[in-house]
Design goal:
Elements (H helix, E strand, L loop, with lengths): L6 H4 L6 E5 L4 H12 L3 E6 L13 E5 L5 H13 L6 E4 L14 H24 L8 E6 L22 H18 L2 H4 L1 E8 L11 H9 L13 H8 L10 E4 L7
Helix pairs in contact: 4-5
Length: about 260
């Protein structure tokens, strides 16, 4: 990488080889396409690749696997080692949530949320750190958290049929924020920078939130609206680039000011 100080070099991410989980979802697709547009290589992981399959470029490598499956995950990293694919960045984007009432929360819902949202990122980071790399700069880890790892949902904005964020989802995102701080302390030894972003409510294109929810949520947000996925991209580019060389252990809220009240 050219170390001459120019804005173009400062925000360059074309040298990155990024492992991206949850790549087939709404936010994952947005991240994937943005990274590819800026010249990075993307190693896309998801249980289904129906959306990702539509993208054809040599810079995109697609892996259909379940990150909660120990064998499949270990198989992926064994493959990456054999092929000398020296990853330079990891984005833990995959997540699940359940919307059933707390009083009806099942062991399966608790266990699956934990396995996807907490255990899998830990195992991914563990394996990522074992990979050899040739970067002189820091490798980057970005965890996709949520405002609900920092604040509780405001239940006054939900109608009876609205999808309510679960207690275990918020707890798992709070855990991811703590893991971000924990792993950031290894920056000197492991030559990594670990940060997170915490998106606010994002408009769901395929399964829109109810008009009532959108109106009430917007009334509690200084920007008076839900976010779009593209509004998460700028901060991810910043965190991947050398412009964030002194940003470490931070969780950056991208919530339109929702958590400022």
């Amino acid at each position: 990488m050219n170390k001459n100080y120019t804005l173009k070099n400062l925000f360059d991410i074309s040298y990155h080889k990024v492992l991206l989980t949850g790549a087939n979802g709404q936010l994952g697709m947005e991240i994937c396409e943005a990274l590819l547009d800026l010249g990075a290589e993307v190693y896309a992981i998801d249980k289904t690749l129906s959306n990702i399959e539509k993208i054809e470029t040599k810079k995109l490598k697609k892996f259909k696997l379940d990150i909660t499956n120990k064998g499949e995950l270990e198989g992926l990293f064994t493959f990456l080692k054999k092929k000398n694919m020296n990853l330079t960045a990891l984005i833990n984007n995959a997540a699940v949530s359940f919307f059933s009432p707390f009083k009806k929360r099942t062991d399966y819902e608790l266990d699956y949320t934990y396995n996807v949202n907490i255990k899998a990122p830990i195992k991914l980071i563990q394996n990522f750190l074992k990979l050899k790399h040739q970067l002189k700069e820091h490798r980057k880890i970005i965890n996709i958290a949520s405002i609900y790892g920092n604040v509780s949902p405001n239940f006054s904005i939900y109608e009876k049929k609205d999808r309510r964020n679960s207690e275990i989802y918020g707890a798992s995102k709070a855990a991811l924020i703590q893991l971000t701080k924990y792993f950031s302390t290894m920056s000197k030894k492991e030559k990594i920078l670990v940060n997170a972003i915490a998106p606010g409510g994002i408009f769901n294109i395929k399964s829109p939130q109810s008009k009532s929810f959108i109106k009430k949520y917007s009334s509690l947000c200084p920007l008076k609206r839900l976010a779009n996925t593209r509004e998460m991209i700028g901060i991810i580019i910043y965190l991947l680039s050398e412009s964030s060389s002194y940003t470490n252990g931070q969780t950056i809220m991208i919530d339109g000011g929702y958590s400022s009240w």
